[in-house]
Design brief:
Shape: globular
Distance between the termini: 33 Å
Oligomer: single chain
Helix content: 25-40%
Length: 676
């Protein structure tokens, strides 16, 4: 199933941090402090790998000591003290820091209290129209704090109280950040969708949580065009009966609709900041699963849990701090937007880009990194591969001297992606391939600034995360493929799903296979060197002749071919006991799926993986379906090919192009009609 190296073969690292970089990493300083103040094992001089392994082992063996150390290292402000760190370690149902009160927004805006930093930029923002340095907008820490305090005061005047839901139908703009922080400041619960979501998709999400306020734009710019959303907004207002107020942000210059409040009026005040102290487990926001096979899961995460998890993740794992500029290409409909905003917790400047990832040219994201002086640049693995195929030369065409780390997520970064970043950006580049999920709004495994980077591998499991690979019997395996499980609670795990009596759906989602242990639904390999390899979703596993295979391994080989834009592989159990494994390919412009190309595809798979991975058929398709956040859809296509009707196989509002799925539905019907 996997291309994981054999345990007796030790590959050479692609990149190793130098001694100076290791010494100045926040992780190193935290480790040294924790060894003296929190009972952590001492670092091993000259052995960053051994040091990290020891620190990680302590963090999962002694979770109370570790998370207490995080609160002390980052000087977390508790309004009321906690009675215990982890009063109950059950999953689900873990109880973190009972008795404590906190406020996420207060911590995100702490630099505004420092006279030496108040005038520094907290937010840099630009859209597709900005091609020059002067086109980058700035929001200082003091201005971000003032707008947040003003908007929070207005929300209170509107009757918004702790626990009320506040929604945003907004692109990746500064107003969205202010709205989130103001919502958190009053103890309300934030939830958002990007404006490229249609009305049905938004209502599938927002109607579950019944918001009392809706922040919205009149439209957005994408791909060089303006997209009017006034009709969608009118439909949302009509179909959300719990709304007390709609706040209009005139991104395209349209006047506020009847009855809506104007954004500018709500952020014009200058009151003293006021942060509601809420219980540690109080909801901060609701995120949503893709919802491809039903209503999206409404995932509730806590103020305190996200605060601690993101302090650890941004500070220790991404090494962010004051002076850094943190850019991640994302939208408000993806958890990475929430994670990007949490860059503020580390005191870093966050970079917001509102626009297409590839307009006016495929190198658009590299241009943004250059214009904003980004030090940590996050993107998708798919974007990296698209740049490689398009012959983009980032370092040749852009000044990327400020970039110290390129981080990727969304899907596994294939080996070619690692090599391309190393060759085309800089040899001394930290490549942080990360893997986690909306479910925890964080990473299970990913970047560690003190460790080497190996091609095709994530550097290590994250601190405080007891990440293991388990076989079907629930036994840990090393250097073998297994189910991704987490055996201890993380503070950012959902406190619940919204409208889920008895936590039934929550338990079904993660705890059915291994009771009391989080099973995420990915195939991974934990290597004997401590690294992690992601092989793709286990719920869409390919299983030929009893051998399980990961679809991501096949995509890595096939999508490398210049004639292939993207591919999708499905394994289907046949009624006669057989197994049909077609490979669908979307061709690059000008390419034709003739027999020579089919032969090259089969040969590449056979040589790069194994004969078992070679598909039964290679079929050209007009497109590959994705979720609204850009992830390939495998399970609904499998259901269509098994004969399920489209409306039973997928939630139509959860996919990027329903017409693409109709092709697979027609293909299934044709195959059914052709059977004897």
């Amino acid at each position: 199933m996997s291309t994981t190296p054999e345990p007796d073969h030790v590959p050479e690292p692609l990149w190793t941090p130098g001694p100076e970089r290791v010494a100045r990493a926040q992780l190193t300083r935290f480790h040294d402090w924790a060894a003296g103040a929190a009972g952590a094992p001492a670092a091993l001089p000259g052995d960053p790998q051994g040091s990290y392994d020891a620190l990680h082992a302590w963090s999962v063996r002694e979770p109370e000591a570790f998370w207490r150390a995080i609160t002390e290292w980052y000087d977390v402000r508790f309004g009321a003290p906690y009675e215990a760190v982890l009063a109950d370690a059950s999953m689900p149902g873990a109880r973190w820091f009972p008795g404590a009160t906190v406020n996420y927004a207060q911590h995100a805006l702490r630099p505004a209290e420092d006279p030496a930093r108040a005038a520094e930029p907290a937010v840099l923002h630009l859209d597709e129209r900005g091609s020059e340095q002067q086109d980058v907008g700035t929001l200082s820490w003091s201005e971000l704090s003032r707008q947040t305090a003003s908007l929070a005061a207005e929300l209170r005047r509107l009757g918004v109280t702790p626990g009320d839901r506040v929604s945003g139908y907004l692109p990746n703009i500064p107003q969205a950040v202010v709205a989130l922080l103001a919502t958190a400041a009053v103890g309300a619960v934030w939830t958002s969708c990007a404006p490229d979501f249609g009305a049905r998709s938004v209502l599938d999400r927002f109607q579950q949580v019944e918001p009392v306020v809706l922040f919205t734009v009149d439209g957005y710019r994408y791909g060089g065009k303006q997209h009017d959303r006034t009709a969608v907004v009118a439909e949302l207002r009509a179909e959300l009966p719990t709304l007390r107020a709609t706040v209009h942000i005139p991104l395209l210059g349209t006047a506020a609709p009847r009855g809506a409040l104007d954004w500018a009026d709500l952020v014009a005040g200058d009151p003293e900041p006021a942060y509601e102290p809420v219980p540690f487990e109080h909801p901060l926001w609701v995120l949503y699963s893709s919802g491809t096979t039903g209503l999206p899961k409404a995932i509730v995460q806590s103020q305190g849990g996200i605060l601690l998890e993101h302090l650890k993740q941004t500070g220790l794992h991404l090494d962010l701090g004051p002076g850094d500029r943190f850019f991640w290409y994302t939208s408000t409909g993806w958890m990475m937007w929430n994670f990007l905003v949490s860059g503020l917790l580390a005191g870093a400047t966050i970079v917001l880009y509102d626009g297409s990832p590839g307009y006016p040219a495929i190198d658009a994201q590299w241009r943004v990194a250059e214009q904003t002086g980004s030090t940590v640049f996050g993107t998708s693995a798919a974007y990296v591969i698209a740049c490689r195929k398009a012959g983009v030369h980032p370092a040749r065409d852009h000044d990327l001297s400020a970039v110290t780390c390129v981080a990727t997520t969304g899907s596994p970064l294939p080996p070619d992606g690692f090599r391309w970043l190393h060759d085309e950006v800089r040899a001394d580049l930290w490549i942080a391939s990360i893997s986690g999920g909306t479910d925890v709004c964080s990473c299970f495994a990913g970047g560690v600034p003190t460790l080497p980077v190996y091609i095709g591998e994530l550097q290590a499991p994250c601190l405080g995360t007891d990440l293991q690979a388990w076989d079907a019997q629930g036994r840990p395996v090393v250097d073998e493929v297994g189910e991704l499980v987490v055996t201890n609670p993380m503070p950012s795990m959902p406190i619940r799903f919204w409208n889920d009596p008895g936590d039934l759906r929550y338990r079904e989602s993660y705890f059915e296979m291994f009771p009391g242990v989080w099973r995420h639904g990915d195939w991974i390999t934990r290597t004997s060197r401590g690294t992690v390899v992601i092989h793709g979703r286990s719920d869409s596993t390919l299983n030929r002749q009893g051998v399980r295979m990961g679809s991501a391994d096949i995509y890595e080989v096939v999508d490398r071919l210049p004639e292939i834009r993207e591919s999708l592989v499905i394994g289907i159990e046949q009624p006669d006991g057989g197994y049909w494994m077609p490979l669908f390919v979307q061709l690059a412009d000008g390419a034709e799926l003739d027999e020579p190309l089919r032969d090259r595809i089969r040969a590449a798979i056979r040589e790069g993986l194994s004969p078992r991975h070679v598909p039964d058929e290679v079929i050209a398709v007009p497109g590959i379906p994705h979720t609204l956040t850009g992830k390939r859809i495998e399970v609904p296509v499998k259901r269509l090919l098994q004969g399920a009707p489209l409306d039973r196989a997928v939630n139509p509002g959860s996919v990027d192009d329903l017409e693409v799925l109709r092709f697979y539905e027609r293909l299934a019907a044709e195959r059914a009609n052709s059977r004897p």
